[in-house]
Specification:
InterPro entries: AhpC/TSA (IPR000866), Peroxiredoxin_BCP/PrxQ (IPR050924), Thioredoxin-like_sf (IPR036249), Thioredoxin_domain (IPR013766). Pfam families: AhpC-TSA. Its EC number is 1.11.1.24. Helix content is 28%, strand content 27%. It has 5 helices and 9 strands. It has helices spanning 52-63, 65-70, 83-93, 106-110, 152-162, and strands at residues 22-24, 30-32, 40-45, 73-79, 99-101, 114-119, 122-127, 130-134, 140-144. It is globular, with a radius of gyration of 15 Å.
Amino acid sequence: MASSPAVANSGLAEGDKAPVFRLPRDGGEVVTLGDYAGQKLVLFFYPRADTPGCTREAIDFTRLAGAFSAAGTAVLGISADPLKAQERFRDKHSLGVPLISDEQHQMLEAYGAWGEKSMYGKRFLGILRTTILVGADGKVARIWRNVRVDGHADAVLEAARSL
């Protein structure tokens, strides 16, 4: 049976309550889902800090940070990179969105952004480029799987504005 594009490996689907998380972010603070209660939240999961696609994606979300804020939407970037790598990535590219470190993959798995990948004929577990839009009600409003970076941040902004 083919799975719906709205259902993740974790079983997370649009309309579900967003899974809670508590993780460190760049700058040494801790971020939780509860910190964003009552507002919309974009979670963009990226495979690796400072790689070409991930850099373009993070720069695009930074470029639109003001527009997301005007739409009542916070934006967080999440990868399994250690905090030091996240901070180097932020500083090198002047990124303006908080970057979360999920080295144990708890949040990645809960949101369906961790799974089997394939490269050069080899299969391995890794981060699946995924974006989740959580509504102000704390429910998953939209899920993007297998994200193509070009134009993606703009599409997410339009979806956030329409909520």
